[in-house]
């Protein structure tokens, strides 16, 4: 009994002690819980305010000097101008959001389809299906960088890494890279190294294969053009070459191949596209050229030196790694032997190109003679005789009718080894240039603005080809373009084929056999006996165009 009573009394004393301890612990827990609740409430308010600031940026914030005052564009109306800030535990990350389709940071920019006039076979080959391709862009930006894309000058940005490759143009493929660009000429490789040096999704490390010659639609011309490998890298692995030569100016990478050596193709495939691509840098650019044709470089050296103040880098044999802040791989090209000002940097046009050519070769005449204000001088007409195919068989008769029409005749044709400067001076001294369709008419680029060009079109439904080569382009250069299409009776083909042959009755059937067959018949085997009486009115019209 005493033992049982002891056991009953002992638990009562233990309950009192535990109750006091429990009350003390409960009070402490309540205090801690209240403190945590207050802290969490304050944090939520701060994050709410931060989200509100991101959704409604302050108008005083200027992320980039080029977009000051463009608040609407920064709020989502531009594909590249929206900057969103994401908080992490240790850093602040910036990412550009596009109104277009995105996938793992890769941005696709749609580009339009371009049409092209027939030009030495271009009308057939250019119809390949390039219209489904799109301009691709990748980006990597360090904190605090905003940028925007300008189709005329590429990307306007600060210390950002940016690549844009346009594969949609049927004439050419071009990649424009900004940032840490490394070029190893001997291996024909170009690497754009990311500025942030952060591991990224492998899908963002993209690559392109570019043949930097502006005649993409022509398989024969492109067959021997060295392909350039262009890729992006985060720079963390051992796949990035180390710089051995650093440059502070941009680079333009292109090839001299294809039909280079043909005077017309030298201009339409290389020199005009090179002007479009590099002239905006006003000489502060380096040319990286893939070629073994050093004679070509020598021939056009004055033009190349006018476009760049720096030594040429010959990529095929150069084992150095050249590093640039900006590089363009490939040459922009708009149409045959011409420029579209709406698509060219700074609105450049063929008038600017011909003015550039006159400046390069120090040509003195910017405008032709103006009859009535000339003191009785005759206008000078340059007659291109052609020594090979498509030559005039009654040349002296033509000279006579030209002189009778009131012109001073100048006879000249560039020969193998002729210096461009010498030809340019002769052409620039004339007011009218006349010749059968052929590369010699390329010299219209040296004529004074407002001069006249007369193209004699051989028989065989060649009007579209002839106009696409020299008609539209000379008009773009603000020259007066006149065209004379010969008849069957004026063609030497009447001595080779019966008059009921498809060559005369159905020229289109000859065209359908392909460029080689068409060229063999109408370009390689045809000479011209001009009907001077039928041609005379065109000479009179040329004179009229020289009146003020």
From TrEMBL:
PANTHER family: GLYCOSYLTRANSFERASE (PTHR20961), OS01G0119100 PROTEIN (PTHR20961:SF144). The chain crosses the membrane at residues 21-40. Pathway: Glycan metabolism. It comes from the Eukaryota. This is Glycosyltransferase 61 catalytic domain-containing protein. InterPro entries: Glyco_transf_61_cat, Glycosyltransferase_61. GO terms for cellular component: Golgi membrane. It is a single-pass type II membrane protein. It comes from Musa balbisiana. GO terms for molecular function: pentosyltransferase activity. Residues 263-454 form the Glycosyltransferase 61 catalytic domain. Residues 86-102 have a biased composition (Polar residues). Residues 85-138 are annotated as: Disordered. Residues 111-129 have a biased composition (Basic and acidic residues). Keywords: Glycoprotein, Glycosyltransferase, Membrane, Transferase, Transmembrane, Transmembrane helix. The keyword Translocase does not apply. It is found in: Golgi apparatus membrane.
